[in-house]
C-alpha cells in the first residue's frame, strides 16, 4: 500500500515537473503541435491527390458544398443574399452560354476583368467548369500593361464586367487587332466587335456541367494566373496551380474557422488574398462570405454588425484606416473574433486592440507565386509567423546576409551565402523541392529565373528568392523588416519601379530616372519617389509630368515626390543605387536637391517646402 502511494506520488510529481519545465522552456509546445497536426492533415490530403488520380479541386469543393448545403447563404453583396445553389446554377448558365455562344473551349486561358461582384465568382467558376484557366486582371491597370497581360498568359478571350467596359474603350481596337474576343456581362453593348454574354444566360439550362470537363490531369495543372508586380517593370502572370489554390483555401480552417463563421472580404478579388484565401477558404468551411465592392472605413463596422460578421480579411493599411476613423461609443459592439491578413504594424495592432476589442489578429506571410508561408497562430504582436521545430521538419528556408548597398546577397570566399544569426535581419530564401515547388510565371523563362538563387549553400541547390528581409528571434517568431530590389508596396499594392520609370521616360525633359519608395510616418509601406537628371537646356515641367502619370499609372504607382539631381550613383556594373536615396527620404531640410510633391488640387508637381513637408508627416495633408 505504501509502495503504491509512493509510486503514484512519484508519477504525479514527475508529470507536474514535466509540465512546469514545458511551460518554462517550451511555452508554445502544445500550440505548435496542434497547428502542426492541422497542417499535416491538410498536407496528407494534398499528397494523396499528388499520388493518385483522385484530385478534388476548389471548384469541386464548391460543387460538393452546393449539393450538401444548397440553401445556405454563400455570398452577401450589397444587401442581397446568394445561396450556394444560386451561385452554382448561375455559374452553370455562364459555362453553357460560353460553350454555346463563344469561342471558349477546354484548355483555353480566359482573362477576367471585373470588379468585386457576384458575377466575378460565377464567371470564374463557370470557366473552371469548362476546364479553362482564368487570368485575373487588376482593374487599376492602364492600356499598355493590359495588353502586356494578354501576351504574357496567352489569353485570347476577355470577359469584362458591366462597369468596366466604358473605361476599356480606348484599348478595344488594340485588343481586336490582336484577335482577342471581348465578351461583356451586359444585356446590350454599343461597341463594335464586343459581344454580350448576359443576354444569353436565359437561353441555356442551369443544369450541372459534365464533371469530366473540369477534371485536371495533375494537381499541378494551372487553374489561375494572378498578376503581380516585379522587377521586369510590367505585371507578371504568376502561375497558380490547383495545388496552390488548395493550399490557399486552407487558411481559415487552419486558424480555426468553422462553417458558422461569416467572413467579410473588402479586398479586391483579383488578388490572391481575397480569391484564394477568402473565397476558397469560405468554400472549404461551407461558411458565408460578405463581399464588399470596395473597402469603406466609415461603413466597415456597421457592415460587421449588420451581417453578424465573425472574421474579416485585412491588409495593414486597412486597419490603419479604421484606427483613423473618429471614435464612437459602440466600437466594440460587434461579433468579430478573428481577422486574417498581412502587413499589420505593431503600433496599429496595439491601437486596433485598444479601440475595437481583443480580436485575434492572424498575420500570415506569403506571396502568390511563392513556395513558403508563415502563419502567426500564436498571435504575438509584430510577428508575421512562427517557425517551430515541427515547421522546420517540413519547410526548408534560410535567412542569409544581404548587402543593401550592392543590392545582393553576401557570398563568402567559396561563393556561398551566409546565414544570419538569431535576431539579425537577412534575405529570406526558401529551398525548391517536391514539398515546396515553385511554378514561376507565364511567358518568358527569364522572369522565373530571376526569382531563383542557385548554389546558395552548395553546388546545385536552388532557392526561391522572396525579395524580403526578415528576422527570426530567439523564440522562433518571424518578423518582416523590409523589401529589397525593384518593388515596394503602397496602398496595399506592389509597385514595380521599372514600370514607373518607363512611363516617366515618356517625358522629354528627363535624361535619367531612378524610382524608389520612401517611408512616410503614419503610413504602411513606402510612397513612390523619383530622382531625375534633367536633360541639358531643359527644365522640369510639373504640369506635363502630372498629365503623364495620371494618364499612364494607377493611383498607387504615381510618384508622390520628385528629387532633381545632377548625377546618379551607380554600381560597378552600372546598376542604379537606391539605398542612399531611400535612406535620405524626402525632407527638404536635409536634402540640398530640389524637391517637388504631387498636388492633385493644382494638378501639378509643386515645390516641396518645409511647411508642406511638416503637414505631410503630421498627417494634416493627406497622401
Task: Describe what is shown at a glance.
By secondary structure, this protein is an alpha/beta fold. It contains 19 helices and 30 strands.
Q: Can you walk me through this structure?
A:
- This protein has 623 residues and is an alpha/beta fold.
- It has four domains: 86-241, Rossmann fold (3-Layer(aba) Sandwich); 249-369, Rossmann fold (3-Layer(aba) Sandwich), CATH 3.40.50.980; 380-483, Luciferase, Domain 3 (Luciferase, domain 3); 487-617, 2-Layer Sandwich (GMP Synthetase, Chain A, domain 3), CATH 3.30.300.
- The protein is 32% helix and 23% strand.
- It contains 19 helices and 30 strands.
- The strands form six sheets. Strands 2-1-11-10-12-13-14-15 form an eight-stranded mixed β-sheet. Strands 7-6-5-3-4-8-9 form a seven-stranded mixed β-sheet, with helices on both faces. Strands 16, 17, 20, 21, 22 and 23 form a six-stranded antiparallel β-sheet that branches.
- The longest helix is centred in the first third of the chain and has 24 residues, at 2-25.
- The protein is globular, with a radius of gyration of 26 Å.
- The mean pLDDT is 89.
Put simply, the count of helices is 19
In spatial order, strands of the major sheet run 2-1-11-10-12-13-14-15
Gap between N and C termini: 79 Å
Percentage of residues in strands: 15-25%
Rg to the nearest angstrom? 26 Å
Helix content: 25-40%
Query: Can you identify the CATH class of the largest domain?
Result: Alpha Beta
Number of domains: 4
Q: Helix/strand-derived class?
A: alpha/beta
Main sheet? 8 strands, mixed
What is the arithmetic mean of pLDDT?
A: 89
Please state the second-level CATH architecture of the largest domain.
Answer: 3-Layer(aba) Sandwich
Principal-axis shape equals globular
CATH fold topology of the largest domain: Rossmann fold
Please report the total strand number as a whole number. Answer: 30
Low-confidence stretches: none
Keywords: Cell membrane, Fatty acid metabolism, Ligase, Lipid metabolism, Lipid transport, Membrane, Nucleotide-binding, Transmembrane, Transmembrane helix, Transport
GO molecular function, one term: nucleotide binding
Pfam families: AMP-binding, AMP-binding_C
Catalytic activity: a long-chain fatty acid + ATP + CoA = a long-chain fatty acyl-CoA + AMP + diphosphate; tetracosanoate + ATP + CoA = tetracosanoyl-CoA + AMP + diphosphate; a very long-chain fatty acid + ATP + CoA = a very long-chain fatty acyl-CoA + AMP + diphosphate
Amino acid at each position: 500500500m505504501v509502495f503504491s502511494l509512493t509510486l503514484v506520488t512519484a508519477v504525479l510529481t514527475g508529470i507536474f515537473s514535466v509540465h512546469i519545465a514545458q511551460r518554462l522552456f517550451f511555452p508554445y509546445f502544445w500550440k505548435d503541435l496542434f497547428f502542426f497536426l492541422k497542417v499535416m492533415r491538410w498536407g496528407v490530403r494534398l499528397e494523396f491527390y499528388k499520388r493518385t488520380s483522385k484530385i478534388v479541386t476548389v471548384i469541386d469543393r464548391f460543387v460538393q458544398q452546393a449539393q450538401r448545403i444548397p440553401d445556405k447563404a454563400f455570398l452577401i453583396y450589397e444587401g442581397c443574399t446568394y445561396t450556394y445553389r444560386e451561385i452554382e446554377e448561375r455559374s452553370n448558365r455562364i459555362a453553357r452560354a460560353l460553350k454555346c455562344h463563344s469561342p471558349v473551349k477546354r484548355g483555353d486561358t480566359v482573362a477576367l476583368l471585373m470588379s468585386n461582384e457576384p458575377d466575378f465568382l460565377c464567371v470564374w467558376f463557370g470557366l473552371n467548369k469548362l476546364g479553362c484557366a482564368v487570368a485575373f486582371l487588376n482593374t487599376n491597370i492602364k492600356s499598355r500593361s493590359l495588353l502586356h497581360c494578354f501576351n504574357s498568359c496567352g489569353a485570347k478571350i476577355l470577359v469584362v464586367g458591366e462597369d468596366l467596359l466604358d473605361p476599356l474603350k480606348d484599348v478595344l481596337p488594340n485588343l481586336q487587332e490582336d484577335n482577342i474576343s471581348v465578351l461583356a456581362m451586359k444585356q446590350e453593348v454599343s461597341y463594335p466587335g464586343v459581344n454580350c454574354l448576359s443576354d444569353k444566360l436565359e437561353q441555356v439550362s442551369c443544369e450541372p456541367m459534365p464533371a469530366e470537363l473540369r477534371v485536371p490531369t495533375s494537381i499541378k495543372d494551372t487553374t489561375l494566373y494572378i498578376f503581380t508586380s516585379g522587377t521586369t517593370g510590367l505585371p507578371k502572370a504568376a502561375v497558380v496551380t490547383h495545388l496552390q489554390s488548395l493550399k490557399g483555401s486552407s487558411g481559415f480552417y487552419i486558424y480555426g474557422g468553422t462553417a458558422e463563421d461569416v467572413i467579410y472580404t473588402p479586398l479586391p478579388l483579383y488578388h490572391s488574398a481575397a480569391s484564394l484565401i477568402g473565397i476558397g477558404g469560405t468554400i472549404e468551411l461551407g461558411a458565408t462570405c460578405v463581399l464588399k465592392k470596395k473597402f469603406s472605413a466609415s461603413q466597415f463596422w456597421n457592415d460587421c454588425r449588420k451581417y453578424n460578421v465573425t472574421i474579416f480579411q485585412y491588409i495593414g493599411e486597412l486597419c490603419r484606416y479604421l484606427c483613423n476613423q473618429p471614435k464612437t461609443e459602440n466600437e466594440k459592439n460587434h461579433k468579430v473574433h478573428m481577422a486574417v491578413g498581412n502587413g499589420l504594424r505593431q503600433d496599429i495592432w496595439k491601437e486596433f486592440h485598444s479601440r475595437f476589442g481583443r480580436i485575434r489578429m492572424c498575420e500570415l506571410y506569403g506571396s502568390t507565386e511563392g513556395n513558403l508561408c508563415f502563419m502567426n497562430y500564436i498571435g504575438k504582436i509584430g510577428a508575421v509567423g512562427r517557425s517551430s521545430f515541427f515547421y522546420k521538419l517540413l519547410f526548408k528556408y534560410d535567412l542569409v546576409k544581404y548587402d543593401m548597398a550592392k543590392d545582393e546577397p553576401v557570398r563568402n570566399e567559396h561563393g556561398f551565402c551566409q546565414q544570419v544569426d538569431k535576431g539579425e535581419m537577412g534575405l529570406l530564401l526558401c529551398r525548391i523541392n517536391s514539398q515546396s515547388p515553385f511554378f514561376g510565371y507565364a511567358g518568358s523563362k527569364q522572369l522565373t529565373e530571376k526569382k531563383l538563387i542557385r548554389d546558395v549553400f552548395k553546388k546545385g541547390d536552388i532557392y526561391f528568392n522572396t525579395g524580403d528581409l526578415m528576422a527570426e528571434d530567439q523564440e522562433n517568431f518571424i518578423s518582416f523588416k523590409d523589401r529589397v530590389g525593384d518593388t515596394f508596396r503602397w496602398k496595399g499594392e506592389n509597385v514595380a519601379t521599372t514600370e514607373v520609370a518607363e512611363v516617366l521616360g515618356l517625358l522629354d525633359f528627363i535624361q535619367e530616372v531612378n524610382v524608389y519608395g520612401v517611408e512616410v510616418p503614419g503610413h504602411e509601406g513606402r510612397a513612390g519617389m523619383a530622382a531625375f537628371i534633367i536633360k541639358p537646356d531643359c527644365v522640369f515641367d510639373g504640369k506635363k509630368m502630372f498629365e503623364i502619370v495620371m494618364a499612364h499609372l494607377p493611383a498607387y504607382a504615381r510618384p508622390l515626390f520628385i528629387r532633381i539631381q545632377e548625377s546618379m550613383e551607380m554600381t560597378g556594373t552600372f546598376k542604379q543605387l537606391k539605398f542612399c536615396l531611400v535612406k535620405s527620404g524626402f525632407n527638404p531640410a536635409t536634402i540640398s536637391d530640389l524637391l517637388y510633391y504631387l498636388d492633385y488640387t493644382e494638378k501639378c508637381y509643386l515645390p516641396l517646402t518645409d511647411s508642406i513637408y511638416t503637414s505631410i508627416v503630421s498627417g494634416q495633408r493627406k497622401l
